[in-house]
Design goal:
By secondary structure, the protein is of the alpha+beta class. The chain has two domains: 76 residues, no CATH class; 188 residues, no CATH class. Helices cover 28% and strands 17% of the residues. Strands 7-9-11-12 form a four-stranded antiparallel sheet. The protein has a two-stranded antiparallel ribbon with strand order 1-2. It has a two-stranded antiparallel sheet with strand order 3-4. It starts with 13 loop residues before the first strand and ends in a 10-residue tail after the last helix. The relative contact order is 0.10. Keywords: Membrane, Transmembrane, Transmembrane helix.
Length: 315
Amino acid sequence: MPYDLHPACEFLMPIKFTCPHCGHRTSASEAYAGSSGPCVQCGVTIKLPGDRADLASPGRLADIGRTPDIGDTPVVAQAPDAVPTPGKSTGCMSTVLLVLVALGMVMLLFAGMDCHNEPRRRSECNNNLKRIGIALLGYYDEHRSFPPAYITDENGQPMHSWRVLILPYMEQSALYAEYDFDEPWDGPHNRRLMAKCPAEFHCPSDPSDKKISRYQVVVGPGTGWKANEGLRIEEITDGTSLSIAVIEADTGRNWLDPTPLALEDLLLSFDRREPHPGGGNVVMFDASVHFLHSDTGRDTLRRMLLINDGERVNF
């Protein structure tokens, strides 16, 4: 426990010394010159330099209300190196502030670049859906119906996706020829094609892997998509320009995955995530593309997905 200077000894100078055992630098009141005691750092007994031990006698120290045993009390230690240097502290703080400011500026720069690029990505997404819409019409011209949402196996399980069926109408005939319709979409051969997703199936604003597509068709009673059977234009009594063919959903799947998006599942998750700030793109059965705002009501979205309910919704 450190000794305090006696009021009568305030004029005494502190003794600075170094422990010969551990090298610890410290200081003590001159009143304890010549006294012995354990080093505050290593505990080994050391003797203070000087010959003023008489000033540290018990009688003298009793005047300040205590009688220390200098053999049991560590020598007062205040390392000069531990005293903070104002110049060094100020310099460190300045450096930290400069680093924080620089990081903030970099973050703002990247945020600004991202905001600047979003209109371009949204435009590319629009073009992707336009090409998909044109490919759907190309399929229709040859088959006199739109493609089915998926083709099933003998057990009724989805086996091949509508995306694969429209490849020849997207200038992807070579990729279409590589696909093996005799095995499932995730079979040994077709699995090798999973990474060959055409750019038109991937939204540039989607941060997920580029083989993932969130352009999906919606199945359910009254929609334009079902298994194994294509839709004819005359069935779309609400009008091809008012009925959604493909929607940019909030989640995606591998472009070969034929798993459909159920109408009720879409309605439940529609307002949870925005593919783009403020909403997402849709392509109608006439290949026109529109931006569907995220504040669109679920009932309105349902009417736009149903093709013959008599409830026509204009953009």
